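Weekly structure sync, notes
Attendees: PL (lead), two postdocs, one rotation student
Agenda item 3: pending single-chain targets
PL asked that the sequence for the first pending target be pasted directly into the notes so everyone works from the same version. It is reproduced below exactly as submitted, 351 residues in total.
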Amino acid sequence: MSAPQRRGGVEFLKARGVSERRACSLVGISRSSARYHSQPRPQDDQLIEQLKKVAQRRKRYGYRRVWVELIRQGEVVNHKRVYRLWRLAGLCLPQRRPKRPRPGTDPVPCQATRPGQVWTYDFIHDACFGGRKLKMLTVTDEFTRESLAIEPRTSLPSPEVIVVLERLVAAHGAPEYIRSDNGPEFIAHRVREWLAQAGVTTRYIEPGSPWQNPYAESFHGKFRDECLNMETFASLAEAQVVIESWRQDYNEERPHSRLGYRTPREFREAWYQAESARLVEGLDLSPWELRQEGQPGPDGKSGPGPAAAPAGRSGRIPALPYPPGGQTGLYQDEREDPIPQPLGAIPEGRL
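Predicted structure, written out during the meeting:
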């Protein structure tokens, strides 16, 4: 029972002849709290309007993600105040019954320790407005939680799965492992032979054990709750456009609670920056020495390579861990804080 409700109980008892001391004792509130009258705050009305605008745009967000949205917009506000006004405005989502942990379940085998090491792929099904079935292949990076692809089709046999994997490997490089269930498209000989040729080790979960593939199940829950249940697709083409737009928003705009309320893209970039800074500080190299052949230094210029390194250093300098698709933010000439931390440090155990 909240404090305003308790005050209402005290007033109810006092109206029926019960003393204030006795009424407070029965309700369980101190007399000073019972006499408190909240003062109107004009700034709260403005914040409530902001919360309603965010809730209109992000219908499935809770108050914590809305608070993160406000912080990203430059607002200075406490999360407890956001929660109070969120409830006052009646914006709370219906609470779900938490699932009980399955006793005796083993931890996820072969957990990822860096980006691009372990992928997981699975299917999720939906339908268009006219009843046309949709079958979607989702591919996720388990470490960064980044959605690499969502392919909506009417059917996705094993040759089509190989086409999607070929495109992703060409864009991001091949992972060490790929996790999936035992669906016929995943255990097909064509798919297994192609993965073996690409140097990817398959990790199949045990039949009837979806908890061994938690990253795909978690992503599917968010995908269905925030996209599939909120949209009505008139055609396959519309579904492809809407789903791809949601995927990009998920990677670049949606804060992820398990990543310290960073987006998957921000978390990946922060990890590469932190790993590069750790490697550079471990080698004790100057920015001049980082100019390997084909690798620009902080000033954007490429050096002559390790052969021109100062006397006293010999051998090739190990290459820095460039992220796929770019070299942004790898060299930090000013090392006060090489990792962007807008909303807290990277969760423990993620480096």
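Discussion points:
- The beta strands are 118-127, 133-141, 147-153, 177-180, 201-204.
- The CA atoms of residues 287 and 299 lie 9 Å apart.
Action: rotation student to compare against the earlier draft before next sync.
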